[in-house]
Amino acid sequence: MADFITPKEKSYTDWYIDIILKAKLADYSPVRGCMVIRPQGYALWERIQSILDAMFKETGHENAYFPLLIPESFIQKEAEHVEGFAPELAIVTHGGGEKLEEAFVIRPTSETIIWSMYKQWIHSYRDLPLLINQWANVIRWEKRTRLFLRTSEFLWQEGHTAHENKKEAKKEAKTIFSIYHTFAKNYLALFSYRGEKTEAEKFAGADITYSMEVLMKDGKALQAGTSHFLGQKFAKAFNVQFQTKTGNLSYVWATSWGVSSRLIGAIIMAHSDNKGLIIPPKLAPIEIVIVPIGKQNVKQMIMKHAHQLFKKLSKKFRVKLDTEDQKSPGWRFSEWELKGVPLRIELGPRDIEQHSVTLAVRDTGEKHHVTLEELPVTINKMLNDMQERLYQEHKKFSLEHTFYPNTYDAFKQIFNNEKLGCAIAPWNGSPKVEKMIKEQTKASIRIILSQKDYPLQGKKCLFSGQSAKHMVLFAKAY
Amino acid sequence: MADFITPKEKSYTDWYIDIILKAKLADYSPVRGCMVIRPQGYALWERIQSILDAMFKETGHENAYFPLLIPESFIQKEAEHVEGFAPELAIVTHGGGEKLEEAFVIRPTSETIIWSMYKQWIHSYRDLPLLINQWANVIRWEKRTRLFLRTSEFLWQEGHTAHENKKEAKKEAKTIFSIYHTFAKNYLALFSYRGEKTEAEKFAGADITYSMEVLMKDGKALQAGTSHFLGQKFAKAFNVQFQTKTGNLSYVWATSWGVSSRLIGAIIMAHSDNKGLIIPPKLAPIEIVIVPIGKQNVKQMIMKHAHQLFKKLSKKFRVKLDTEDQKSPGWRFSEWELKGVPLRIELGPRDIEQHSVTLAVRDTGEKHHVTLEELPVTINKMLNDMQERLYQEHKKFSLEHTFYPNTYDAFKQIFNNEKLGCAIAPWNGSPKVEKMIKEQTKASIRIILSQKDYPLQGKKCLFSGQSAKHMVLFAKAY
């Protein structure tokens, strides 16, 4: 199977698509721009859902479900919001055999429909905070799509919270942003740059957008999760006021935040190799696959041992027993490598004789002989090591491909495809300069970096020579 | 709070809606016919999802996700299917600011889009069976809607399986039907009648529809779950053939099956009372609420004990600690009764002195003093007893409101609102007779009952006097 994957070095794009199609993570659909998420891919989404959902619930959030359809007039109530989303809308004009009086849009995001409900639910400070999350599908009509990374329909979670004051709302936006970072680092093994979006790049309707940017192996940045402090914009658009503790009326403060099924694309791109998918162990739906090997005369005996081992390991790990018996061991090994299972246990007659197994590690390709007695401890260590190794490798790659150019010429060279990666540089804060750079180099400001981590120290703007306002991260973006 | 619920005896409809709105299970939305599922209601859906999902996975099914939008031409490929669904479709005519060349429908069910993919995935008997389930939203434009029971958008799961032969496909449809029954009985505490739909009532595109019908307290039947043997209809419509073991080409055999968020409506209607919701313990998101009670001077001491108890019980049960301290105990008790939590632990100064608690049972209203030592065992027993009691009560109600009329006049009296319930009667199998009865009485044939459980014994059709073909269940339907 592995032979059929285009090598990464030959074409990163083809390599990426090959992995998705061959590992059966997803498929193209007859609906332009929309994909089918196949069981192997959906299992990754289920893991993402269950881990994040628990993190949201631990911090006091509850799930709910709001209508898919939004009256067209709602989208228009917040000026920036409609400007940002209008070009991407799918519009329902007919229902039940009749033309509708008012058209509906399919939600591209749910702020407007949710705030129309919050108006009915929020009257007093006693109704706050309101901490609601929704797991849902959304549609944003896209011209150029790529499996997982950019599709017209995608799956996501969208949190929408309401607060008494600015401070609490900002704190909420940051709390969630920190959850996203923890999740990306500890589960997805992804290193990320984090910071605030510029005015030009922030969410349509936000006061502040916090974004987590992850560097892919082709040097492009992927926006992997955003958390927005919305100020009072949606409360004002939908006239949501509440009685404060002191008896005054005040507009409600808001946040919204989301991550989507594009995270699956990030995992594939960041960790996989020419043999196929590599899944970080903590995320993997299957941590270990047991592959019994043996000729006809010993098959039954081996399968018996394999079942025993499966039963024993299942108590501690997510295990799969491979019962395929038509294909060669080599074919089956390649197949499990393609699917990205972190550890493979090979169990043959000699292993059984020696009360041991052969343990193959997906990313390094190493094989170890391990006694049955040592097996659970060894598995645990190898899974943890692999998790840490994938993160460190991605971090190393990201840092090695982050450049600090000293001149605009050096900057341009990076994005001329002479180098692979992103750039950190001082910027004077001017939207005009930002626009010019994007036009000239196709690199955009992904985020404004924190001055604590990236001190300005009196630097001059690389592009204007004026005094710099921020250190910012530039990259071509997915 | 309970005062605000219209008594069931006064208006069943208002009582039902009051419970939903006051217990904050759901709310009306600004999108006609669509509801908002609020956190209290969505928590029930999450329980339904997690329990059923585990049952599907245990029987070899995997989850996937297919596009929301279906090309209009796909829906038209299966003649019965389009006839059944055309009047209920929501149509997307514009996307990304342009009129679309071909319109899309929002999925009312996904057979057509899924079978267009199965054509690409199924080539050989080795690709079968294909056992896929999808958790999704669907839209069927409804004129008359009622919260949870009938809404234009609803949440559901839809299974779509593909098989080598008729026998396996039929077996699959029955396996799932049996899962639905087990789930309804053991978790939802619902008694159901089960059987096949008539030609007139079956799913648009099915050869056989198995349906589970649940009697509500107003005497109407609710179709609570259906499993369809689809024969080769969709395989033929999408030309899905496979190479058999013997090397021939054959059309694939199919099933589809689903339950939806209307199950939440069934639970409310079947079990609740004038104080509010009653949730069967095995389904309840919260099995036990701990309500600490005490005046200002002992509050802190009581809360300390309450936290200890919460920690202890959380290891075995789904527990909530009520930390509200502004409202009176009476108000809080009513509030938890309204929300339907099965057991309430009241913890006051005297309870703590006596190393005991007061345990109140939601459905019977009984209160017991239980020592801390006996508490876990007692809780377990009371939860199990309540689960069984709710089922037995619903079964008793259903059987007492199932009539066996001997004449058409007696039959008509039932559905003239002179009696409350459904009827079982012999029928000659004629669609004309079926249609006439529906027109005259508004009662439809919900299902054909199995001859094993409901023997014909040479009975005559109640309506035509001809020899009967089936014993069938008649009811007005939701």
Query: What fraction, in percent, of the residue positions of chain A are helical?
Result: 25-40%
Terminal-residue CA separation of chain A: 28 Å
The CATH topology of the largest domain in chain A corresponds to BirA Bifunctional Protein, domain 2
CATH architecture of the largest domain in chain A: 2-Layer Sandwich
Global Rg of chain A = 25 Å
Note the total helix count of chain A.
14
- Widest β-sheet, arrangement of strands of chain A: 3-7-8-14-11-10-9
- Name of the top-level CATH class of the largest domain in chain A: Alpha Beta
Dominant shape of chain A: globular
Proportion of residues in extended strands of chain A: 25-35%
**Could you say which structural class the secondary elements and strand pairing of chain A correspond to?**
alpha+beta
